[in-house]
Write a structure and sequence with these properties.
Structural class of chain C: mainly alpha
Radius of gyration of chain C: 24 Å
Strand content of chain A: under 5%
Strand content of chain C: under 5%
Helix content of chain A: over 70%
Distance between the termini of chain A: 39 Å
Number of strands of chain A: 2
Radius of gyration of chain A: 25 Å
Shape of chain A: globular
Largest interface: A-C, 105 and 104 residues
Helix content of chain C: over 70%
Number of helices of chain A: 13
Order of helices and strands of chain C: HHHHHHHHHHHHHH
Oligomer: heterotrimer
Largest sheet of chain A: 2 strands, antiparallel
Strand order of the largest sheet of chain A: 1-2
Largest sheet of chain C: none
Number of strands of chain C: 0
Order of helices and strands of chain A: HHEEHHHHHHHHHHH
């Protein structure tokens, strides 16, 4: 009865699916508040940040323009190279642990079996814990004074184990805490994608005589490839920009071995009150983010052509 | 039919009743408002915000109990002031006040560590107190046990101390030291090194010093000045403000600290990332044989279960290895400051109250805190046997004074940052002491501009 | 057709349980340790070797946290902030999502791009200017600025989420409503929205979890107990009680409760929220 309205333009409505978008006020008004708020809180501050990064600052007052001096200080500072290295090690190290774990657990949870909901609930739990709380919890666990981990490891190696205090193991401790909290996110995404694979495909492959590994490689993985990629992208950006977890867990120490780029920004701006310099480092982070995101978008576009 | 008529009537009646009610209500409302306006203006209590790092509700800590008593007394004496306490961790206090002051959301009175007063004053986060002290005569100004200039910046007074206390107190385990053959506490560096080695066994650490940046390297920055002084040096040059912490004296100090880790195998490598609270906790739990801190901790620690009856205090050993007493360091104590935008009159009332003789006696008697004013010492409490230890501290301070030079260090946060980096490398990465310190000194000097 | 499992299938099943149990143990261990510590009396906490089960258990830390700290106040603030943010985000997000789902108009792609591009912006970049802006506007240390900032960060995700949900609702329903005499907005409010309850619920819980756990923005935009949310309160509590692990563990446990409860009850919606849009091929 009202079917004619669905496709063509019906007077009185603007529900068109026509090829060329028209100028319509109504939907723009609907979207404007959301876009407006985001512009106000995200984009205009970016402009201000850029401006700050070119100015001299003293405590909370911004002074005159000094060009690229902050940027130059950053690149000539030995600590900066360490910050960048730490950020990349942290990001890739966390991905290397969380993605396989997420994939493996998603595969295990894919088929129904008694207790599946229970396990799924337990495994998603870390994701709802805040970075702050994660840091506190792991600080206790790793504490050489009263943490069970240090005790167990100490008993095994018969020496005093201080995971977060030893420069060679501190990053490992931070990565483990990070993986603990974030693997559920990738797991859920991959699991959801796995659930969309029709059972017939598996059956067909098995009838064809494919072994488990080949089933995974030629049937399962291609179907979830896109989701896997999306999970990787989202997590890697999340990891690269992370501040709260390392800030509370180690504060960037020992010997700055866990000071990620974001932590450097925070410390320079809010502890040493060098807002201009902090803004410059933040801008550098922003540029890296854009570059990586653009690369990802390219990869996504290429993949989705199949 | 009749029902309808009735309901119409009722409907009308209701609406009329409703209208009357509405009118009546409005009239009553208006009358109420008018009356309130005409009523004598009852003084609304002035809200005073006070930032402290101590939770008054903590009944286990004697200092907190003393604070609670003093604040309660203030409230009683000032019914027109509503005092609101907020607890901010001491590691974040100066940072939070700076941020809040810029936004005009700072508290009216805040406790601040004396060594950050310079930073806060230069950032304009706290206001000078001279309008309140200009009426004071010389005698009043002289009533203090510390130099007036300790808390001035550019000749303006910015804060008042809440306790004048020695920072270089060595808390130690009497049982462990006696077992190591020391019936009296070590007085020289050699003796201290020896007893530390002897007491390091099993889970117990003989000596440790934390270097984490998360609390502004608090313990070390409070303990190291006297180490420099006995060697004839200091952290920075008093005239130019430039680094001197990297020179010969500093090299000796850091080399010894490094040796304590790698040569004498006393201190753990992990101390590079420990903070003061962790160290204190180890001492309280009995896993550290000694701990360097200020005198105010005695009241609390002497009551801790694990170490009760097993600890005592002594003076820090002389780093120059001479059995002479070490000049006392008083920098690293709490002060009261008035942030920008405070309700000055009422804020000053609180500051004055907390500095009154009565309040200081409460702090001393209940909390074990040393007073800041000479007039307070006249109180009979200080003649009682309870106060013996405190009097001992006061006498030491009087006999071995030293100007609190750390309070005049500019951009202290930058110095701490550079020194902590260097210290961590020296301790955790066994870096070369001389070059690491030199790099840190340069880093700090550059920031001075 | 149920047949008896073969030996390999039994082994696989057992293997699966073992793997999942190990993983679950890993996932639960930190939370377990917090609870364990929270119920232990202070003297038993710093014990070497550590005690794996509190004996004797005590409630003193919980009582302490609930009566002697600012945490209950912080709790309330978090609830208010979460509620306020959810409201703002749902209103802004639903309208924007509807526009994106139903209409094809000039500027749509640009607007969607702006919303998407926030993913590329690390939070720290805007933290400094937002702080300065809040100071200049006199909104520093108010719940309003926190809600606005939180909403701005969550709106883009929710727009995409709700758009996906709206697209799943047949257009015919909108048109039926229009033919019946509804205005365009009316069709939205009366027909589409009620049918999108699952999507709205998913959005609400996602926002709730994010706001509840948010820390660094709140740390720098608040200056009094009246506005501080639970995360900042917890951070300060840690600094203040530093050496009183029992109290800290109790505070942490208390902070975990709402999210865990919410999550347990609304798990399905939560998962739906996280996966919407991301599993499209």
């Amino acid at each position: 009865m009202g079917q004619t309205g669905a496709l063509g333009a019906t007077p009185g409505t603007h529900l068109t699916t026509g090829p060329r978008p028209r100028t319509q006020l109504f939907p723009v008004c609907l979207m404007l508040p959301a876009v407006g708020l985001v512009l106000l809180v995200t984009f205009f501050p970016i402009v201000q940040s850029v401006s700050l990064s070119f100015r001299e600052t003293s405590y909370l007052k911004a002074g005159g323009y000094i060009g690229l001096r902050h940027y130059r200080s950053f690149f000539t500072d030995a600590l900066s190279a360490l910050n960048l290295r730490n950020s990349f090690v942290f990001t890739f190290g966390s991905l290397a642990l969380s993605l396989p774990m997420a994939l493996g657990l998603a595969l295990l949870l894919n088929r129904p079996f008694p207790g599946r909901t229970f396990f799924r609930t337990m495994l998603i739990l870390p994701w709802v814990v805040s970075q702050l709380l994660t840091a506190l919890l792991w600080r206790w666990l790793d504490s050489p004074l009263l943490g069970p981990l240090a005790y167990v490891l100490g008993a095994l190696t018969d020496s005093r184990v201080d995971i977060l205090g030893d420069p060679s193991t501190a990053m490992g401790g931070v990565i483990v805490a990070n993986v603990w909290r974030t693997f559920p996110y990738a797991m859920i995404l991959i699991l959801a994608a796995l659930q969309t694979i029709p059972y017939d495909l598996y059956e067909a492959a098995r009838i064809d005589g494919a072994g488990r590994w080949n089933v995974f490689r030629y049937v399962t993985f291609p179907m979830i490839q896109n989701t896997f990629l999306i999970a990787t992208i989202i997590l890697s950006i999340h990891y690269f920009n992370m501040i709260e977890l390392p800030l509370v867990l180690t504060g960037g120490g020992p010997v700055n071995r866990t000071e990620l780029l974001g932590l450097r920004v925070y410390r320079e701006a809010f502890v040493l009150f060098k807002f201009g310099f902090g803004a410059a480092v933040a801008m550098i982070m922003f540029v890296i983010n854009i570059a990586v995101s653009l690369a990802y978008i390219k990869i996504l576009r290429a993949e989705s052509r199949y | 039919m009749a029902g309808k008529k009735q309901s119409a009537h009722t409907a009308q009646g209701i609406s009329r009743r409703e209208t009357l009610k509405l009118l009546g209500g409005t009239a009553a409302g208006l009358a109420g408002i008018l009356q309130a306006r005409q009523a004598p203006a009852q003084a609304k209590p002035v809200t005073l915000r006070y930032w402290t790092w101590q939770n008054s509700a903590d009944t286990k800590n004697p200092r907190a109990v003393a604070q609670a008593q003093n604040l309660a007394a203030f409230r009683k004496a000032n019914p027109g002031i509503e005092l609101v306490e907020e607890v901010i961790p001491w590691q974040n206090l100066h940072q939070q006040v700076l941020q809040a002051a810029a936004a005009n959301r700072a508290p009216d009175v805040s406790r601040q560590l004396d060594r950050y007063i310079l930073t806060l004053a230069e950032a304009g986060a706290i206001q000078p107190l001279d309008p309140f002290t200009k009426g004071w005569n010389a005698a009043r100004k002289n009533d203090y046990l510390y130099a007036w200039d300790d808390t001035t910046v550019g000749d303006k007074k910015f804060a008042f101390r809440q306790a004048v206390r020695p920072l270089n107190v060595m808390y130690y385990r009497t049982d462990l030291y006696e077992a190591a053959g020391f019936k009296t506490p070590p007085k020289t560096l050699k003796e201290f090194t020896a007893v530390s080695k002897a007491t390091t066994k099993g889970q117990v650490v003989g000596f440790l010093m934390p270097f984490s940046k998360s609390d502004g390297m608090s313990k070390f920055i409070q303990q190291c000045p006297p180490m420099y002084w006995v060697l004839g040096s200091d952290l920075v040059d008093p005239k130019t403000g430039k680094s001197t912490f990297h020179q010969e004296a500093g090299q000796k100090i850091f080399q010894w600290l490094q040796d304590m880790v790698y040569v004498h195998k006393v201190s753990p490598i992990g101390q590079a990332s420990m903070d003061s609270e962790t160290c204190n906790q180890m001492f309280m739990a009995g896993t550290a044989a000694c701990n360097f801190d200020h005198s105010s901790k005695w009241a609390e620690w002497s009551r801790k279960e694990a170490i009760q009856g097993k600890i005592d205090t002594a003076w820090t050993p002389n780093f120059a290895d001479e059995p002479k007493p070490v000049p006392v360091s008083t920098a690293g104590a709490w002060t009261l400051a008035m942030p920008k935008g405070a309700k000055a009159e009422e804020a000053w009332k609180l500051m004055e109250f907390l500095q009154s003789n009565e309040a200081e006696v409460t702090d001393a008697r209940v909390g074990g805190e040393l007073p800041t004013r000479k007039s307070t010492l006249k109180d009979p409490f200080f003649q009682t046997p309870e106060a013996k230890r405190m009097v001992g501290w006061l006498n030491y301070m009087a006999e071995n004074p030293h100007p609190a030079t750390s309070l005049k260090i500019k951009k202290l946060e930058a110095l701490v940052d550079a020194m902590a980096d260097a210290a961590q490398q020296i301790i955790a990465s066994k870096a070369d002491v001389k070059s690491t310190l030199a790099a840190a000194a340069q880093k700090y000097d550059v920031q001075l501009g | 057709m149920k047949r008896r499992r073969t030996r390999t299938e039994w082994l696989q099943l057992v293997g699966r349980y073992i793997a999942l149990s190990l993983a679950s143990g890993f996932a639960l261990m930190p939370v377990y340790w917090a609870l364990n510590t929270a119920f232990k009396p202070e003297s038993k906490i710093v014990m070497y070797p550590p005690q794996w089960w509190p004996s004797p258990p005590t409630l003193e830390h919980f009582i302490n946290v609930l009566t002697q700290s600012a945490l209950p106040r912080n709790y309330l603030n978090s609830l208010l902030l979460a509620g306020g943010t959810i409201l703002v985000v749902l209103i802004l997000g639903a309208h924007a999502g509807y526009a994106a789902a139903r209409f094809n108009f000039r500027g749509k792609n640009a607007m969607l791009f702006i919303l998407l591009a926030t993913v590329m912006v690390p939070g720290i970049v805007t933290l400094i200017p937002v702080y300065l802006m809040a100071v200049q506007l006199g909104l520093h240390d108010t719940k309003l600025i926190l809600i606005l900032v939180f909403a701005a960060w969550q709106t883009p995700t929710i727009v995409w989420l709700l758009r996906a949900f709206f697209e799943n609702i047949p257009r015919e329903l909108d048109e039926a409503a229009l033919i019946d005499g509804c205005s365009r907005l009316g069709a939205f409010y009366r027909v589409v929205l009620p049918l999108s309850q699952p999507g709205l619920a998913a959005a609400a819980i996602l926002v709730f979890v994010w706001v509840w756990n948010e820390f660094i923005i709140a740390l720098n935009l608040t200056a009094s107990d009246a506005t501080r949310p639970l995360t900042v309160g917890l951070f300060f509590f840690v600094g203040e009680s530093g050496i009183q692990w029992g109290k800290m563990a109790a505070a942490a446990s208390v902070a975990l409760i709402p999210v865990v409860i919410f999550f347990a009850i609304l798990q399905r919606r939560f998962i739906q929220g996280l996966t919407a849009g991301a599993t499209k091929g």
